[in-house]
Amino acid sequence: MNTKNFYVTTPIYYVNDKPHIGHAYTTILADVLARYHRSLGDQTFFLTGTDEHGQKVEKAAAARHMDPKAHCDEMVLRFQSLWQRLGITNDRYIRTTDDYHKTVVRKILQDLFDRGEIYKAEYTGWYCVGDERFFTEKDLVEGKCPECGREVSAIVESNYFFRMGKYREWLIDYIENHPDFILPAFRANETLGFLRKELGDLCISRPKSRLSWGIELPFDPDYVCYVWFDALINYISGVGYLQDDAMFEKWWPASYHLIGKDILTTHSVYWPTMLKAMNLPLPKTIFAHGWWLTGNTKMSKSLGNAVNPMDMIERCGVDAFRYFLMAEMSPGNDANFTEESFIARYNSDLANDLGNLLSRVLKMTLRNANGVVPTPGTLTDDENELNSEVAAAIETMQNSLAALKFDQGIAGAMNAIRAGNRYMEKTAPWTLAKKGEVERLNTVLYTAADALRQVSVLLYPVMPGKMSELRKALGYTGDELSNAKISDLVTCPSDLAGRKVQDTDGLFPRIEVEAKEKTAPSPKLAKEKKSAPVNVYTPIGIEDFAKIQLLTAKIVAAERVIGADKLLKLQLEVGAQHRQIVSGIAPWYAPESLIGKTIVIVANLKPAVIRNVESNGMLLAAKTGEELKLITVDGELATGAHVG
Ligand code: MSP
User: Fold this and answer.
1) Residue 468: which H helix or E strand, with range?
2) Is 15 a pocket residue for ligand 1 (Cβ < 6 Å)?
3) pTM
4) CATH code at 585?
5) Residue 33 within a domain
6) What's the domain count of the chain?
7) pLDDT, tens digit, for every residue of 332-391?
8) Residue 78 CA, ligand 1 centroid: distance in Å
9) Which of 96, 194, 414, 608 reaches 20 to 30 Å from 530, CA-CA?
10) Given the CA of residue 299, which atom of ligand 1 is nearest to it?
């Protein structure tokens, strides 16, 4: 077979926050693409990772009173465990704090400096802390950041610059002559519009006095490298640039950089010019997808409407989550995530259409064919029609793969499934069984099962777990559960007849939506609902626990809250901060007995007003029956220390 090398990347994610649906989406998209290419027999390399330097990360670590590297080490586990849970098959996980990456960045910087591609100059500009970007006066929109609209601060300092501006003409020309370089095409036009204005040089350093968390410039120890310059290089350091020539030769240039639309300019302008200066070829395609919105507004941490992938996975399973993200978003455009749309699609596509066809085929085969997929007899127009629907689905999937339109490929596969259900109704195998028309019955059972077999191969990259289960139900075992190739669907005859089927316990149990009652419980999978044991403890993941910020605090003052017998108002020292909390511990502790105790508080609880007194946090205490004891620290420890 004519195999190709296929190299796909995701952006490397900032470790200033926990992963959300936007991160999960790009990573699943890359995973599906990588799995499809493997299934086509291509040699495939899939790189993802984390972007660990820069101001955002430095600030996030400071807010947690942590050393930046320790903060990164902790945050990175959240990404890695989510990817594991989501069945992500990346070949390498790059961290920009890894030594090999830092070495490559420094070598590149030195080389560009030696060749005059980087120079030092005084710079006056505007800086947006949120975006970590410098802007010139003319870039600003009404004096604010052109990207996010926030306030910017004026900055004058000496810095190092990369001669990006001189590549402007060349880049315009390149984009115009390589229609697949930036996709969708309207994003290429957006980049051209940006380039036609003017292109300045790129400030690639930050004085250590302002930011120390970065890679030190090899030619000036007073500066660190600008985080984007460092981060973009991951795409080549991750495949051996300047370290493993054979590896680099094999994978570079990348086939796809998958990115979100908000990081288009850094990828379509900074990165190509950097590569040009390094004399390296450009990636074949930079593909910018749209945003996940919720209720048609942008998801953001500050709006508190970000979807936590972990919550959805817990409730609906990994494969249903992967399926929804891939089926619902037409890459390039924005898509909307709501619980209602998720449940509607799950129930109609997976529980009804796919689940139903499988369960009908299995039950009829077990009941009427000794549980073995029969050999078909003569095919009629009905079989030919279903087979051609399946053939169309294979073609659609292959085309949509080439154009990165998985939603269309998935829709094609679902069409074939719906055609399978129509076929069952039309041919009515249950009547054939009653009438004893064995040959015709065998043909129908085989044809419907074979449609399922083929769809299981088409949808395997999207739902590897569930499609393996489906294949197992059809009688496949071992490697056959996962190594079927789409290309073989066209070239190899079916190997289904004669396999022993087994019933599944409902591949996709319906999600029952309960009428909104007083307590409006969240919808749960019907099957889980019936069998869910009553647990004394509700298990949570480490990610859930990590949401709770526990800190040590010293009680510096305490008094009763007037008019409330049980409440004490406590003044706390938490590191450099001061806090007031109200707590119902008056029955157990006299105010004066508390002074000087180092206790543990939940520091990130929403502020509340209790009996007109503001409370910022909650203290931890243990209680049995009538007894209550504060959780205190054993020995001397600074206040504001992280507890976990
Ligand atoms: N660290 C940089 C990328 C460096 S790549 C050399 C970065 N990190 S990020 O964590 O902030 O964002 C990573 C990706 O998540 C971006 O592609 C961004 O578009 C994507 N998303 C963040 N929120 C999103 C949605 N709500 N929907 C879809 N994707 C979004 O930028």
Assistant:
1) helix 464-473
2) no
3) 0.78
4) 2.40.50.140
5) yes
6) 3
7) 889 988 888 888 999 999 999 999 999 999 999 999 999 999 999 999 999 999 999 999
8) 16
9) 414
10) 26
